[in-house]
């Protein structure tokens, strides 16, 4: 199915459907470069960064293979991993609200969420220990999606997933607004440099060897088995939230979940 170019006006309420799925879900929106950088600086003084700055290289390497929970969830709440040293997570492991994000690096609606809404969520909720965000690969837009997802895991192996995610979406927002960015290997390497990935040779080798290819395919299968068919799609505690909703809608949902979690509720 040919990829569609989406106008900026359409981005506020559409998702990118899987190439073999009928378009039916609506997309989400989000800025993160400064928020993620600030979150990393805050470190132990604010909230854990999933992989934690004190995590060893071995933990980062192991974490880069994370796909989903260790066992198939018997209810939607168990979709969330909530594991220490998860390089694909931002926020405290025991945060009262956790938001699973099923996303694609080649999705224009995911770009919008990352560059317009994600940073606000980090600033308002993650920093205060109220929200944990967990990334899940759902590379549904063909080979360039898969390549970028493998690159994300190669960055995660060096403890730099969120820096890479931020740099990639910022580049996509600049170079291909409203379009599928379809980054090449050389472009992904350039983005990794911008993100501060320390060993670029290892980053390239991990991608070219297909080291994380099986993990990406397993993650895709996991998302599809949960009924996902478009990106981005979110699970906030037990609520499935598809679509490019404005920040205010996320705030409403998260605040509602925080009220439920409050003592006496």
Structural class: alpha+beta
**Mind telling me the CATH class?**
Alpha Beta
**Unreliable runs:** 1-13, 19-55
> Which of globular, elongated, flat, extended, rod-shaped describes the shape?
globular
Gyration radius, to the nearest Å? 17 Å
Average pLDDT, to the nearest integer?
Answer: 82
> Looking across the biggest beta sheet, what order are the strands in?
2-4-3-6-7
For the termini, the CA-CA separation is 48 Å
Q: Roughly what percent helix?
A: 40-55%
Family: Belongs to the thioredoxin family. DsbA subfamily.
InterPro entries: Thioredoxin-like_fold (IPR012336), Thioredoxin-like_sf (IPR036249), Thioredoxin_domain (IPR013766)
GO molecular function: isomerase activity; oxidoreductase activity
Pfam families: Thioredoxin_4
Descriptive terms for the model:
265 residues, 7 strands, five-stranded mixed sheet, two-stranded antiparallel sheet, redox-active center, alpha+beta
């Amino acid at each position: 199915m040919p990829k569609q170019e989406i106008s900026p006006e359409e981005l506020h309420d559409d998702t990118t459907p899987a190439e073999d799925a009928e378009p039916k879900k609506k997309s989400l929106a989000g800025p993160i470069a400064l928020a993620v950088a600030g979150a990393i600086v805050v470190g132990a003084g604010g909230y854990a960064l999933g992989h934690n700055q004190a995590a060893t290289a071995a933990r980062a390497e192991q974490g880069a293979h994370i796909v989903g929970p260790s066992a198939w969830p018997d209810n939607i709440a168990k979709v969330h991993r909530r594991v220490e040293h998860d390089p694909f997570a931002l926020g405290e492991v025991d945060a009262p609200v956790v938001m699973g994000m099923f996303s694609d690096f080649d999705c224009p609606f995911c770009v919008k969420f990352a560059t317009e809404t994600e940073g606000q969520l980090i600033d308002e909720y993650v920093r205060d220990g109220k929200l944990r965000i967990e990334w899940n690969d759902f590379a549904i837009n063909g080979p360039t999606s898969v390549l970028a997802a493998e690159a994300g895991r190669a960055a995660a192996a060096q403890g730099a997933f969120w820096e890479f995610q931020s740099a990639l979406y910022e580049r996509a927002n600049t170079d291909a607004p409203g379009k599928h960015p379809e980054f090449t290997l050389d472009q992904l390497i350039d983005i990794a440099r911008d993100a501060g990935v320390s060993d670029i040779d290892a980053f390239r080798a991990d991608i070219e060897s297909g080291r994380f290819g099986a993990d990406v395919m397993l993650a895709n299968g996991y998302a599809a088995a949960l009924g996902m068919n478009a990106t981005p799609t979110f699970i906030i505690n037990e609520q499935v939230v598809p679509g490019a909703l404005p920040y205010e809608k996320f705030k409403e949902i998260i605040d509602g979940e925080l009220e439920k979690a409050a003592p006496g509720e």
